[in-house]
Amino acid sequence: MGEGPEFFVWEVRDEGDGLGPVGVAGSPLDASAAVVGMLVRKPVGWSGSVARVRLDPWRPERYEVLQTVVWGTGRLAGRADGLQQE
Asked: 30-33 contacts: CB < 8 A, separation 24 or more?
């Protein structure tokens, strides 16, 4: 894959139903702040992640996950990549 634009996808998930907020940020600091800000208001069992993602410049529907950071005790904390790639 070529050198396409990078962005930061963040998500927060509940251990029970797996649902939670998801967003995109332009910097790792903004994405991390969004996740941590939500996790401090959630009970045990919630997890959050930030993934550094690069788009394919020729096929924008394709992307590569370059790095993932995970916080919490829920499902995301047990996954290696944090995101589900298609």
From this structure: 32/69
What CA–CA distance (Å, rounded) separates 54 from 37? Answer: 25
DSSP letter assigned to residue 77? G
Cα–chain-centroid distance for residue 37? 14
Residue count of the chain: 86
Amino acid at 46: W
Please name which of 74, 23, 68, 86 lies closest in space to residue 44, comparing C-alpha atoms: 74
Secondary structure (3-state) at 52? strand
pTM value surpassing 0.85: no
Q: What is the mean pLDDT of each run of 10 residues along the chain (86 residues)?
A: 83 83 94 92 86 88 87 59 43
